[in-house]
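Colleagues,

Please find the record for the two-part complex below.
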Amino acid sequence: MKGAGGQGSPVPFLVPALLIVFAVLIFPIVFSFVVSLFDWPLSAGGGERHFVGAGNYVDLVQEKEFWNSLKLQLGFIFIAIPLELLLGLSAALLLNREFVGGKVVRALILLPVFFLPVVSGMTWRFMLQPRYGALNNFLLAIGTPEITWLGHPSFAYAAIIVQDIWRMWPFVFMLLYAGLAGIPTDVLEAAEIDGATFWKRLFRVILPLMYPTILTALLLRIIDALRIFSEVYVMTEGGPGMATTLFSLYTHRQAFGYMKVGMSSAMAVFLLVISIVFAVTLVRKNMSLEKLEDQGGNR
Amino acid sequence: MTLANRRKSITAAVMFFAVLLLIVELYPIFITLLNGFRRDIVILSGQKFALSQLTTDSYMLVFKNTQMMKAMGNSIVVGLLSTLLSVGVGAMAAYGISRFKFRGRNALAYSFLVFRMLPQMSLVVALYMMFRFVGLRDTIFGITLAHSSFNVPYVIWMLIPFFTAVDKSYEEAAMVDGCSRFTLFRLVFLPLVAPGLVVAAVFAFINSWNEFLYALILTGTKAMTAPVAISSLIGGDTLTWGQMCAASTVMLTPVFVFTLAMQRFLIRGVSAGGVKG
């Protein structure tokens, strides 16, 4: 083990962090699980609580709205993330060469990733407004009638997906570009000299070598997409109707719209389990402590 | 076509696509910046852009909006406090993990990383009820504590490589001099990992600065942070786009400055759990 000193006890150094983790992570997780077993209304006075066991979970799977939110959530992940990977990979391959202003382009293209999610949601909401939104101005200019984008269920759903793709493909690009730069140039040149076509080089050399990076990007994006909330909340508030009520938005609505904390906690536990599965997969496969330690402070 | 010519035309095509990508990616950011300098009424009436519309009226309205100013103040205070707390506590834990051998070391390190990736939505309802019970709801301390739920694990994971990189000889020399582990940590390690502390602090601050869901649920009028205050500028009958864009620009400026200044650390910064609200 590199650098580990060995003697003495690490406990005093770990205790403060563990206390915080217990107070704001472990305890709320356990508490969520407990609440999910109760019919627990959200009211200032506490309200009547009844132990219902797995009742909330049973109610959930019988609820049409629950399946709707799950379907929207999965659709969001299955549409947005492959496109983000594709765009990110194409841009990484395209921009992986020296040209005038290349550095500036690669830096500026990352700005959307750091655009505050709330601001991004509101800016997209603005651009999609009738009368003064940019997209409708464009439609009017080319002579087509304008559309109330966020008032239409399918368009609103498409809009939240486009918003996410716009903001997050540069994130994928950033990871894949670094991965691509990590491939030794002589490997690539050897393949080129051998006369391999671009597609052959891509599928036989580049993609296999980049597999760990692509997997990391994929898992990070899935974990991130599972918890999407603020952008959509400010963009559509889950509407029109329930058309953009993704999983987190429905969990929120259960607690603070319908005042059913028990049901909301059952959904929270469900989401937690899925997220832990993906997070543990990611950590096991691609984020070993040894690898992290080898990076040292140089990167 | 000769090889050199082919190369040249490929480069030209790449530059063309690069510019196209940049336009698409920067357009929404650009109109946010631009509309901050236009008045609400001008935006809502759908007038075509003209230079004569440029004014700082929206900024003036934002700066005169006491609720917004209070929320921005809260954001700064919560960001600084939660950064201080998580860097302090996180540096100690990262030191404990990287410079000691103990059972369960790997498991502990990995669980911190997994904790960073949990969705806020699955914790916030429980936090809401806990905070209401102990009186932490709508307090600066409460929201600071909530933000450390993602910042402490984040800082630990960011700092481990910096602590591991410190050479053993420093430690051994200090131990021979009879330093305690804590003095060693304070006087030897902290100065050596200072660059790491700065990077971790910047990202921790941005994490807190951007955070929306905890702030929405766990704060009210007293401890509300800026992202929630900005979101309340739009909705229902209030459509103050100009002010929204002006306030957003104020929020975005430090984030963009840090991002462009910290290019070197971006990848590690975001892989450790994203700079996401």
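DSSP finds 14 helices and two strands in chain A.

Comments are welcome before we finalize the supplementary table.
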